[in-house]
Amino acid sequence: MKRRTDATDAEIVQECLAGDRDAFGVLVDRHKSVIFNVALQMLKDRSDAEDAAQCVFIRAYERLGSYKPQHKFFSWIYRMTVNESLNRIRGRRETTELHESMLVSSPETTSRAMVEAELEDRMGEALMELVPEDRALILLRHYEEMPYRDLGFVFDVPIQTVKSRLFTARRRLCEICRRRGIMPTGGIA
After folding, report:
1. What are phi and psi of 75, to 5 degrees?
2. Which of 74, 85, 98 is nearest to 42 (CA)?
3. Which residues of the chain, if any, have pLDDT below 50?
4. Is the dihedral of CA 28, 34, 38, 39 positive or negative?
5. Do 82 and 140 meet the contact criterion of CB atoms below 8 Å apart?
6. Under a CB-based contact definition with an 8 Å cutoff, are residues 42 and 86 in contact?
7. How much is the pTM?
8. Is 156 helix (H, G, I), strand (E, B) or coil?
9. What domains, with CATH codes, occur in the chain?
């Protein structure tokens, strides 16, 4: 038998299903930072992201029997993370309005690092204006570099649908960025 650190995720899942409860800890250790980061990107709240990640791992453990080895475990748990995050977003009763005071204008003498940090903050705010599904799609594709095939699995749609939805989400994000003055009115898309 392979050492657990050398075993594939599918092999570790089989160990768990065979009764080895400790084996699941290896999967948690492998994927906890990425799962947390996806939840954090979507929820924009550290505490909510920690709770979401914990719920995802609990749910994954409870549903290990439904995991299909022909798919990557990583994609399977990503799907759970996206769904958990979307559910939490939908469940929020209060929405935070963006105030003009939250938008920082860059002074002419600002260093390059400050300008980049400001742009990143403003892009983050623009992303938050997207509907949760569009935001999740853009985050997973462009920030986590998830392949189209895996996105199709996560969103339970064909690859062509993923590409179409991603195209639409990008256009919406570009429009938000133009409206906020983050990019010129000409530009792409």
Report:
1. -65, -40
2. 85
3. 1, 93-110, 187, 189
4. positive
5. yes
6. yes
7. 0.60
8. coil
9. 7-92 (1.10.1740.10), 107-189 (1.10.10.10)
